[in-house]
Amino acid sequence: MFDSYSGYRLLSRLVTYLLLCMVLGLLLGEVVLVLLIGAIALLIWHYRQLSRLNFWLWRDRRLTPPNGKGSWEGVFNGIYRLQGKNRKRVSQLAFLLGRFRQGAEALPDAAVVLDSEHNIIWCNKLAQLLLGFVWPLDSGQRIDNLLRHPDFSNYLKKAAYQEPLELASPLSEGRVLEIRIMGYGTGQFLLIARDITRVRQLEGMRKDFVANVSHELKTPLTVLQGYLEMMQGMAEPGSPNIKAMQQMQQQTNRMRSMVEQLLILSRIEDSTELNVENTINMDHLFEVLKEEANALSQGGYHLSFDCVANVHLYGNELELRSACSNLISNAIRYTEPGGDISVSWKRVAAGGRFSVTDSGDGIAQQHISRLTERFYRVDSARTRQRGGTGLGLAITKHALSNHQSELMIESELGKGSTFSFVIPSNLIEGSGHST
Hints:
The chain has 13 helices and twelve strands. By secondary structure, the protein is of the alpha+beta class. Helix 1 (7-28) runs antiparallel to helix 2. It is elongated, with a radius of gyration of 41 Å. The two termini are 77 Å apart.
């Protein structure tokens, strides 16, 4: 079909028409006049076809083009063919758009599509319920004009979307939303809002439960421990009950230690606000840690301490001391007597680095990612034998999180482990910090 509209075919038609005009002119003896009249007639005919095309494109409501003749037949049919392709593409896009909207409506979260200027392009029904949007009236509105909250405005300005933002719902102060913004395409953003009110309520109930139960257990444990000590003092030498009472005393001490650590963990979880006005003297803290380590090791290990002088920081001394003590006591607990343990505090480019390196058995890689979970133990039997509770590294994790840091673990089976963390420069004294 395309060959019938080729340039060669059109040129041959034009040449044939001019030859006929020339032959007619020769017969009439007026070649130039006949050619002129033929050219004018040809122009009028082309103008007529052009008018028909213009009328069809702008005024005619019919989808099919008018019947073209001659060279204009290919133009009309070509436009109609392109129009059909365009309708097919539009239909496919409409189908895909419909599927996308159906999928977005099925999401369990509120979804809002934003342009590069944070104007609303589209939102699902859940966004209208959770965020109070009115669709389509809010189309094109800046989202910070609808979500008027200082924290959300700062979140948009900083454009640091790696961490989610927790925000009170604009429709209910008692409802908590978790907002995430993700960039995609060219200058477009997807805002996801999730209702986490129930999650926060359950988390608060869990914290209260652990704190209350731990507090209530202290009194009966103290009574049990007192009576056990009294019974041990009254027992006759060689009595078969002595071994049983020793085991009871050992388990009571272990349970009391666990209760104390649960209370410490609950207190650290609640103290999310870091007071950067409190200065921690790391020279003094290192001396305290050194004394505790020597008392715990009882001379059975090769301990080395390396502390750079006058590198102090801002934060909570009790929390940081608890984190450092847990790392040192774990190194002693899981290293065989006679092993090497080195503790250091030094200045690095990113801030201040505290590390504990031991020559113990090491930890398999599949366990490292779970070490900071509560009550997680690589070897439960060995942990109970050495008095571990499974809470030390969980306490360390939360204490370091409150100091804008995280625990780093490097270990290899049979070659020992290194536990370390870096306190950022903004919390190091003399490096500049902001409240």
